[in-house]
Amino acid sequence: MTAGHIYTCFRSMGWSINIPDFWQPLRDLKSKKFFAKNDAGEYEINHIGLDYVQKLGKNGAV
Fold first, then answer.
1. So which domain of life are we looking at (predicted)?
2. Cα angle for residues 57, 44, 20 (degrees, 5° grid)
């Protein structure tokens, strides 16, 4: 996943795209250890992030 993917998601949802740094959410998730960065410089969700998403779904939060 790249900042371009985040930008596209925001546009698709009709959310404001007046954000100075679309990389920031990816860096934040990486610092929480939910994402890792691959050799191509793209972010990938890892097993910790997947587990967190599954727990959110069980609580009806997603």
1. Bacteria
2. 95
